[in-house]
Design a protein that fits this description.
The complex is a heterodimer of chains A (about 120) and B (about 110). Chain A has about 120 residues and is mostly beta strands. Chain A has no helices and 12 strands. In chain B, strands 2, 4, 5, 6, 9, 10 and 11 form a 7-stranded mixed beta sheet that branches. A 4-stranded antiparallel beta sheet of chain B has the order 1-3-8-7, with no helix packed on it. The chains are: A mainly beta (about 120), B mainly beta (about 110).
Chain lengths: ~120, ~110
């Protein structure tokens, strides 16, 4: 079973509008972390935002915010005031558990959403 | 500047050859990872290492090998046993503490010719 599901292969958004990229996850651990990365066409992976499973407030980083709904196991990324430079692939990822030294702790990625910002 | 350096950026391999992808980090991170990315796909874990002289197989380790002789370096060898090696390879590192992000290199695009 997929651990990270991103159901939107591609999304379009008008410049200056907000967009939500969906991510659902599957884990039986109580302690886990959720991450969003941006991958422009150059290929590098750029870290955007992090949400811990015990965090009560939704994470925010500038124009990025994470809509964390623990009971629904969703961690959607919201980008406000889209810019042309936001056009890229976006990946949701999860790190399970907290056991240093075991297979837990590795980042598990979804298949990504390609966001295109229209001028 | 601190960061992760992967080399080369582009690599061409003839069928039946082994090739080694370099990954160096100066972030003093304990953990290092290799991921493979195919077109339109997410990242799949090949190997990871959480401490020097120790490494573990990820989800798709067959046809690959690694070493971790130094904290800063985690080279990946794509062997001739890897049947479909053409892909984009990303190296990452993290401090190894819980719930810290991984930092990625620029990637190596490997093509079999």
């Amino acid at each position: 079973a997929q651990k990270i599901t991103q159901t939107q292969p591609g999304m379009f958004v008008q410049e200056k509008e907000a967009v939500t990229l969906d991510c659902t996850y599957d884990t039986s651990d109580q302690s886990y972390g959720l991450f969003w990365y941006k991958q422009p066409s150059s290929g590098e992976m750029i870290f955007l935002i992090y949400q811990g499973s015990y965090d009560e407030q939704n994470a925010t980083e500038g124009r990025y915010s994470l809509n964390f709904q623990k009971a629904r196991k969703s961690a959607n990324l919201v980008i406000s005031a889209s810019q042309l430079g936001d056009s890229a692939m976006y990946f949701c990822a999860m790190r399970e558990g907290g056991n240093y030294g075991g297979s837990q702790g590795n980042l598990i990625f979804g298949k990504g959403t390609k966001l295109s910002v229209k001028p | 500047d601190g960061g992760i350096t992967q080399s080369p950026k582009y690599l061409f391999r003839k069928e039946g050859q082994n090739v080694t992808l370099s990954c160096e980090q100066n972030l003093n991170h304990d953990a290092m990872y290799w991921y493979r990315q195919d077109p339109g796909q997410g990242l799949r874990l090949i190997y990871y290492s959480q401490i020097v002289n120790d490494f573990q197989k990820g989800d798709i380790a067959e046809g690959y090998s690694v070493s971790r002789e130094k904290k800063e370096s985690f080279p990946l060898t794509v062997t001739s046993a890897q049947k479909n090696p053409t892909a984009f390879y990303l190296c990452a590192s993290s401090p190894g503490r819980d719930n810290t992000e991984a930092f990625f290199g620029q990637g190596t695009r490997l093509t079999v010719v």
